[in-house]
């Protein structure tokens, strides 16, 4: 008993031929050419897999119930066996303790697996809770033979069933509730109440309530389904929100005035059974199957329909081998696509799609007749028992062959839905759907389906060509093209070219048919969309010459231009516009796509016809254009062109120079030539703002000088001479224009007084000799402080009297006298400064410092007077050795080597006094010489070590960026802190 779930498979009973033959292969479908080869390397596992439980009951099994992995069975007369399938090794056996002849009539287990109702043949009912070992009587249920219970799936818990419905053998429907609480002192029964709510009849007589089912829909709407032997009843009603605990009596009361909705069938086999299929846990059933007299009533559950809960109802009649006299169906179980009928010696699985028996399993006679078939609504397993054995069915991949059935029914969408993960089956369905559409002259749909199959491309294409369905052929090619991989370049090229030809043929037929102008425009838009497809852009680009040839052969100029734009072949587009004298359109293409190379190529042609628009486009391009590469076009048409072209050329050059700040010498030279030739007023302004130093300007000075000289712009030449620092030439030329201009040039060589004086003498000579203006000559003396009266006197003629120079001579003498006084004052100040410096030097020689006895070293903080020390002017005091340690790390390599050398010399000089008896006479003589220079050595050491305070001097400033801890010793120091 403890090994009830230790499973083993019986010897595999041979499969029923029906299951084997219902699987269709590709050859049965009639598809001759498919790209898939469907090879099954091993036999597929069956959908319905039976296993016998290794369990030998101590007594006969009378009844069986299972739900939520809780298994309950009635053994013998008064034994109830309970097993939690999660703990199969802990069975629980309970004795009813009945001494009368009563037997268990039926077992009812709620969806939670917690509440077990035991109905006895003596019209008594017992209750057993999952968490107790005590069987309790349901006193209010007495005197009724219970045939069915409708559990409350919404409110039922492990402790309370909530309101439930109970059907009896007399057609009565009661509402009841069972609770595990002990109740009050005077009421210990688990049944809370038990009241009648309705009664069912057949032909005016009470009929047993075979099945009861309670479901809740939307908006607090409840559905109650009840069956008798040949009638199916529906009760629908609303229960106010929050009042579900009050029960279902209100639903039945809503139907008292009207006969309840029911279906009746003529054949009565003494009982009926209804089964439901639920796709997800804790959801409402999706379908039902009612096993009644003349067959199985199957349909879908529709909770929205106002008139009936059932939809798509159909009756599958029993097969001819079922005879009610000896092998009536016993039980029914509904799965997603099948219902299982339990016969006395076998199980039949019938497909709900076509009513065919797809599986039949015959049980050996040694186990006895089959008694009942039960499905666990939570676990989904199907259980069958006889008096001696228990069997279990695993149902797996039930939908794997459903696609074939839907396909045979021409329900291709559903067929594709159920073979999504099986490409070989999907291919068969698509091929069948395509052929079906083709036969029904739905050519476009057929083309779409054919494009998704692996059938031979050539056969399908010829099929549409023979049928003269060019539109369908185009659709097929488009769909096929969209499904190609990027690596399939050859196939893509073939399809793209073919489609282009089809589109062009279509456009050629529609172009001159004015009644189909709308269709023509639509086709053209579709064709252009095809040409601009990003997915096929690479293919179209690689084969653009072929497409151009096709377009040209059809004379389709507009689409050729459009295609050239798509391919970014703007050169072809612009050439086309220029050939047709449509220069505005050509410039529009240039401006839109901003290709610099095309600007350089086509600007000469465009500049000849639309100069203003071209220059506007150039300006809009800004820095993206290299103005130097546009000069050939500008030079060509500025020489032979109109005034407008010249003005536009100057406008663009000015934009380059002043807006873009172009520094190319060619640009500036060209603008300079244009100014010199056509705009002399702007020439001088340009030269002035271009800069006054040769490093600032961007034009060729020699070229500018020659250009200005050729066109007689002398003032501009003077400006160029000034920039070239040819001041003599500038002054000479300026004197021909204006004396003031010459004066401005004479002051330019500020660092060369001799040259300045020479230039001013030239000006003075010009004024005296050429203009013969004595007053103006005197003004030259006042303008330049380098000229004296004696410098310009030789230029005056002999007849000039001294009266003209009296003021100038007096002014010159006064300046000489003033200069002498300044030199005298400077000499006195220098003498006084030298005297003060000598006094400061004498004072420094006599300066001293006082060191107290308690003073400490600034480095080691020990008393200072214990060892030799240094005292600095800043007040810091150091021991000799402490100062040496502080200074040494900061010294350069050269000074460190020098210091080591001096220390060795000092040690050698000190050696004779310490070990004179060990040295030879000649060595002693040498050391004696060293002793004479010992003071000098110490002085040199002091110069290096004590030249400045280590805390206040330059060494401290240089060490500011050095870390406190040596990087090489950082890790060692870091570890010492941890």
From TrEMBL:
Swiss-Prot/TrEMBL keywords: Coiled coil, Membrane, Metal-binding, Zinc, Zinc-finger
GO MF: protein-macromolecule adaptor activity; zinc ion binding
GO biological process: endosome organization; endosome to lysosome transport; intracellular protein transport; lysosome organization; organelle fusion; vesicle docking involved in exocytosis
Amino acid composition bias (Acidic residues), ranges on this chain: 1-10
Topology with respect to the bilayer: Peripheral membrane protein
Family: Belongs to the VPS18 family.
Protein's recorded name: Vacuolar protein sorting-associated protein 18 homolog
Organism: Anguilla anguilla
């Amino acid at each position: 008993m403890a090994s009830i779930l230790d499973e083993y498979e019986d010897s595999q009973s041979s499969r029923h031929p029906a299951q084997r033959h219902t699987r269709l292969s590709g050859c049965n479908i009639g598809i001759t050419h498919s790209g898939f080869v469907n090879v099954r390397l091993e036999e597929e596992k069956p959908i319905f897999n039976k296993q016998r439980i290794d369990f030998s009951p101590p007594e006969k099994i009378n009844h069986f119930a299972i739900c939520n992995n809780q298994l309950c069975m009635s053994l013998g007369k008064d034994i109830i066996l309970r097993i939690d399938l999660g703990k199969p090794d802990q069975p629980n056996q309970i004795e009813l303790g009945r001494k009368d002849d009563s037997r268990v009539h039926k077992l009812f287990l709620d969806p939670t697996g917690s509440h077990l109702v035991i109905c006895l043949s003596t019209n008594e009912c017992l209750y057993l809770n999952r968490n107790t070992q005590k069987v309790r009587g349901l006193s209010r249920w007495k005197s009724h033979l219970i045939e069915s219970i409708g559990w409350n799936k919404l409110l039922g818990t492990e402790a309370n069933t909530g309101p439930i419905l109970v059907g009896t053998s007399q057609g009565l429907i009661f509402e009841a509730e069972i609770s595990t609480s002990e109740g009050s002192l005077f009421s210990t029964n688990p049944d809370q109440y038990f009241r009648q709510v309705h009664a069912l009849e057949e032909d005016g007589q009470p009929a047993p309530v075979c099945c009861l089912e309670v479901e809740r829909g939307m908006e607090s709407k409840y559905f109650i389904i009840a069956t008798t032997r040949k009638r199916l009843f529906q009760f629908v009603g609303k229960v106010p929100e929050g009042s579900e605990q009050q029960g279902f009596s209100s639903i039945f009361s809503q139907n008292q005035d009207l006969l309840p909705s029911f279906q009746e069938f003529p054949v009565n086999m003494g009982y009926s059974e209804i089964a439901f299929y639920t796709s997800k846990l804790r959801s409402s059933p999706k379908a039902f199957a009612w096993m009644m007299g003349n067959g199985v009533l199957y349909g879908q559950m529709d909770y929205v329909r106002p008139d009936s809960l059932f939809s798509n109802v159909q009756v599958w009649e029993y097969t001819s081998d079922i005879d009610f006299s000896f092998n009536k169906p016993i039980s029914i179980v509904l799965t997603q696509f099948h219902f299982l009928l339990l016969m006395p010696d076998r199980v039949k699985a019938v497909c709900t799609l076509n009513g065919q028996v797809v599986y039949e399993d015959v049980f050996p006679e040694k186990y006895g007749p089959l008694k009942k078939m039960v499905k666990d609504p939570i676990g989904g397993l199907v259980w069958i028992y006889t008096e001696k054995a228990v069997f279990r069915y695993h149902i797996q991949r039930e939908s794997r062959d459903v696609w074939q059935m839907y396909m045979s029914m021409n329900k291709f969408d559903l067929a594709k839905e159920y073979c999504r993960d099986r490409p070989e089956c999907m291919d068969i369905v698509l091929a069948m759907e395509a052929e079906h559409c083709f036969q029904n002259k739905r050519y476009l749909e057929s083309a779409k389906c054919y494009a998704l199959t692996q059938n031979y491309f050539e056969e399908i294409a010829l099929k549409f060509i023979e049928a003269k369905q060019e539109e369908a052929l185009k659709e097929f090619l488009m769909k096929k093209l969209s499904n190609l991989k990027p690596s399939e370049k050859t196939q893509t090229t073939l399809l793209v070219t073919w489609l282009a030809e089809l589109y062009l043929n279509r456009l050629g037929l529609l172009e001159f048919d004015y009644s189909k102008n709308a269709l023509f425009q639509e086709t053209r838009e579709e064709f252009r969309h095809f040409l601009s497809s990003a997915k096929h852009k690479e293919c179209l680009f690689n084969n653009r010459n072929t497409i151009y040839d096709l377009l040209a052969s059809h004379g389709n100029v507009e689409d050729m231009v459009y295609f050239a734009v798509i391919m970014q072949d703007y050169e072809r587009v612009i050439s086309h516009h220029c050939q047709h004298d449509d220069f505005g359109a050509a410039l529009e293409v240039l401006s839109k796509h901003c290709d610099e190379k095309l600007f350089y190529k086509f600007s000469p042609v465009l500049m000849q016809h639309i100069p203003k628009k071209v220059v506007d486009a150039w300006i809009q391009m800004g820095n993206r254009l290299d103005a130097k590469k546009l000069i050939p076009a500008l030079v060509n048409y500025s020489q032979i062109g109109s005034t407008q072209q010249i003005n536009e050329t100057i406008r663009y050059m000015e934009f380059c120079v002043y807006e873009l700040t172009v520094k190319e010498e060619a640009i500036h030279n060209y603008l300079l030539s244009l100014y010199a030739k056509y705009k002399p007023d702007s020439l001088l302004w340009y030269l002035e703002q271009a800069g006054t130093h040769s490093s600032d300007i961007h034009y060729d000075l020699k070229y500018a000088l020659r250009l200005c000289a050729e066109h007689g712009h002398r003032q501009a030449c003077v400006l160029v001479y000034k920039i070239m620092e040819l001041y003599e030439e500038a002054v000479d030329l300026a004197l021909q224009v204006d004396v003031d201009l010459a004066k401005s040039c004479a002051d330019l060589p500020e660092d060369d007084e001799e040259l300045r004086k020479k230039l001013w003498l030239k000006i003075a000579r010009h004024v005296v000799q050429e203009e013969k203006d004595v007053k103006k000559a005197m003004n030259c003396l006042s303008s330049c402080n380098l000229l004296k009266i004696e410098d310009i006197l030789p230029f005056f003629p002999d007849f000039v009297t001294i009266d003209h120079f009296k003021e100038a001579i007096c002014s010159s003498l006064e300046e000489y006298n003033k200069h002498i006084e300044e030199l005298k004052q400077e000499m006195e100040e220098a003498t006084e400064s030298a005297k003060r410096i000598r006094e400061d030097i004498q004072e420094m020689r006599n300066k001293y410092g006082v060191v107290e006895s308690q003073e400490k070293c600034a480095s080691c903080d020990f008393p200072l007077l214990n060892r030799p020390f240094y005292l600095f002017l800043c007040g810091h005091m150091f021991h000799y050795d402490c100062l040496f340690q502080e200074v040494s790390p900061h010294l350069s390599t050269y000074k460190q080597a020098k210091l080591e050398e001096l220390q060795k010399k000092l040690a050698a000089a000190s050696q004779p006094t310490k070990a004179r008896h060990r040295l030879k006479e000649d060595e002693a003589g040498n050391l004696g010489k060293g002793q004479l220079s010992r003071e000098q050595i110490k002085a040199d050491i002091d110069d290096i070590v004590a030249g400045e305070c280590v805390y206040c001097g330059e060494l401290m400033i240089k060490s500011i960026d050095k870390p406190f801890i040596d990087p090489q010793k950082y890790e060692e120091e870091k570890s010492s802190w941890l």
